[in-house]
Structure formats: C-alpha cells, structure tokens
Amino acid sequence: MVIDHGALILAPVFPVMGVPLLTLLGREITLYYILRKIGRLAFPLFCYLIAEGFVHTKSPIKYMFRLLIFALISELPFDWMVSGKLLYFNKQ
To answer: pTM here?
Structure first.
C-alpha cells in the first residue's frame, strides 16, 4: 500500500515516473504503472488477513472495534496526503 500511495503522490513531483520504460502489447509501461500495480496487491492481502483475524479472534466485537479505531486513525494521513486537508470525503 505504501508503494501504491507513494507512486500516487510522487508522480506529479517526478516526471520521470511517466516516461515509458517499454512497450508491451501496444501499451506503454511506465514506472508509475508498475508501482501502482505492485501496490494494488495490498488490498486482497489485507482482506484475507482481516478475515483470518476475525476467524481466529476470541472476541469478534473487540476485533471489529480495533479495526474501526485503526481505520479512523489511518484516514487522516490519507486525506492529508491526497488533498492537503485533514478531512476530505470526496476520495472515499
């Protein structure tokens, strides 16, 4: 996820990320494209680990509460990184 969000933020700063590295099946492959595809693996892994944690926890209510707290804490840096505002509801 860090790789994915890092590419999202660094692409406007480093134009070299948009330079084609190679062409594959008529599509130009850039560093930005590669980093975003690597970062997209995070979501299925997170879903799997959350499901495994839920199955193996002793208290599902406490587990869900901890996930909610983590989601609220991680939302603020994400909104700040994407929009420059502490709360930004357009990217949800």
So the answer is: 0.66
Distance CA 83, CA 87 (A): 9
- Per DSSP, the three-state class of 12 is coil
By CB atoms closer than 10 A (0-12, 13-18, 19+), residue 7 is: buried
pLDDT (tens digit per residue) in 27-57: 888 999 899 999 999 999 999 999 999 999 9
84: left (phi over 0), alpha (psi -120 to 50) or beta: left
Residues with Cβ within 8 Å of residue 33, at least 6 apart in sequence: none
In contact, 41 and 49? CB cutoff 8 Å: no
Q: Is the pLDDT of residue 85 over 70?
A: yes
Measured CA to CA in angstroms, residue 18 lies from 22, 37, 83 at distances of: 12, 14, 21
Hey, what amino acid is at 69? Answer: I
